């Protein structure tokens, strides 16, 4: 079967306010979001859904559905991102978090790592004053205060470098981001990967907060409260890169096994928190302990936080992550002390 995927960039250009538009056509925004990120494969989509999306975008089904095109992954060497929600190069990444969950630290770390990989980082500041942004501006190559200046810098720097462009949701609401992406669509530049964040935290309560996305990074309040950073939710975070044809099958298989274990572990943890470990069946204790160890393994020291944490930053390539996760899933770390798995790089 052909490698099929939704033409998210076309949807983004043609239907800026996709949430309202989808509802008006009788579509669930969550379904549309999952189709955009690949959580629901195109092959499993209802025909009426695809027809409705094509109608909204005023395009044919052939234009809406791309065939035989791959989505390239940006390897960040951040374990939980690369396994559960790989960043799609040239796509749009949405960060869904409330203030204090670590989204700015993660962005600063991504800026630091991707600059070292040859990307140029452009940050568009929101109109309102957000002093917390000062913590990451030092990791950007260019900081601008208007969409016009952002366009100029992308055109200038993008002639020779891949671009990481970051903006607050306030620019999404005005439609400026969509207009910018439309302008860049025909420009002769390298790829532009866009990160959208919401400094106010309102996106947590919305079904489709940024419009269509290639990668969704959903932050987890429980992980943040327990200082398990980066606090990325491994169940809700997803990416179009995870569509089977875009990943090697080993990655997809291990990712799905890890998600299944963590999903059950989270259910058991809720019970243990209330009634203690004795409350869960003996047969489930192995699942609980392995889930606990896997969750600990996904904590990771960041380079930008070394001054505060006192722990040296770590990078872990995706092949090492896959091997380590498989080992934990298969019981190879059952005897390891939980602390020895927390804030490490590789096993």
Report on the structure:
This protein has helices spanning 8-14, 18-24, 29-37, 47-57, 61-64, 79-84, 103-116, 134-137, 147-157, 169-173, 176-185, 221-225, 249-275, 282-297, 306-309, 318-329, and strands at 4-6, 65-67, 73-74, 87-88, 92-96, 120-124, 142-144, 163-168, 192-197, 215-218, 238-239. With 347 residues, the chain is of the alpha/beta class. It has three domains: 4-67, 434 Repressor (Amino-terminal Domain); 92-213, 3-Layer(aba) Sandwich (Rossmann fold); 249-341, Bovine Mitochondrial F1-ATPase, ATP Synthase Beta Chain, Chain D, domain3 (Orthogonal Bundle). The strands form three sheets. A seven-stranded mixed β-sheet has the order 7-6-8-9-5-10-11, with helices on both faces. α8 (134-137) links the parallel β6 (120-124) and β7.
CATH class of the largest domain: Alpha Beta
Q: How does the major sheet shape up?
A: 7 strands, mixed
Output the structural class.
Answer: alpha/beta
Strand content: 5-15%
Q: What is the CATH homologous superfamily assignment of the largest domain?
A: P-loop containing nucleotide triphosphate hydrolases
DSSP helical segment count: 16
**Named CATH topology of the largest domain:** Rossmann fold
Give the spatial strand order of the biggest sheet: 7-6-8-9-5-10-11
Low-confidence stretches: none
Helix content: 40-55%
- Write the element-wise H/E pattern from the N-terminal end onward: EHHHHHEEHEEHEHEHEHHEEHEHHHH
SSE layout and pairing:
Elements: E1 4-6, H1 8-14, H2 18-24, H3 29-37, H4 47-57, H5 61-64, E2 65-67, E3 73-74, H6 79-84, E4 87-88, E5 92-96, H7 103-116, E6 120-124, H8 134-137, E7 142-144, H9 147-157, E8 163-168, H10 169-173, H11 176-185, E9 192-197, E10 215-218, H12 221-225, E11 238-239, H13 249-275, H14 282-297, H15 306-309, H16 318-329
Helix pairs in contact: 13-14, 13-16
């Amino acid at each position: 079967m052909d490698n099929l995927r939704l033409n998210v960039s076309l949807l983004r250009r043609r239907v800026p306010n996709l949430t309202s538009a989808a509802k008006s056509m009788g579509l669930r925004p969550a379904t549309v979001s999952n189709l955009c990120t690949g959580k629901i494969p195109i092959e499993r989509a209802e025909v009426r859904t695809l027809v409705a999306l094509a109608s909204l975008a005023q395009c044919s089904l052939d234009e809406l559905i791309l065939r035989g095109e791959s989505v390239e992954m940006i390897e960040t060497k951040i374990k939980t991102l690369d396994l559960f929600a790989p960043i799609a190069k040239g796509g749009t990444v949405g960060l869904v978090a409330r203030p204090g969950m670590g989204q700015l630290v993660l962005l600063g770390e991504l800026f630091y790592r991707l600059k070292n990989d040859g990307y140029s980082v452009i940050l568009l500041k929101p109109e309102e004053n957000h002093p917390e942004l000062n913590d990451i501006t030092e990791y950007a190559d260019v900081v601008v205060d208007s969409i016009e200046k952002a366009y100029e810098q992308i055109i200038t720097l993008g002639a020779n470098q891949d671009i990481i462009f970051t903006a607050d949701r306030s620019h999404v609401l005005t439609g400026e981001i969509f207009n910018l992406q439309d302008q860049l669509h025909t420009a002769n530049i390298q790829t532009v990967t866009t990160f959208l964040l919401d400094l106010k935290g309102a996106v947590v309560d919305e079904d489709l907060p940024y419009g269509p996305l290639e990668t969704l990074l959903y932050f987890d309040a429980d992980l943040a409260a327990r200082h398990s950073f980066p606090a990325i939710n491994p169940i809700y975070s997803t990416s179009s890169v995870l569509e089977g044809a875009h990943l090697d099958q080993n990655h997809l298989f291990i990712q799905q096994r890890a998600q299944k274990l963590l999903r059950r572990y989270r259910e058991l943890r809720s019970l243990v928190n209330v009634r203690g470990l004795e409350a869960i069946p003996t047969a489930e204790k192995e699942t609980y302990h392995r889930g606990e160890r896997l969750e600990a393994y996904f904590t990771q020291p960041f380079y930008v936080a070394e001054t505060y944490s006192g722990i040296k930053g770590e990078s872990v390539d995706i092949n090492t992550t896959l091997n380590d996760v498989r080992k934990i899933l298969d019981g190879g770390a059952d005897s390891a002390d939980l602390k020895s798995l927390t804030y490490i790089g590789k096993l």
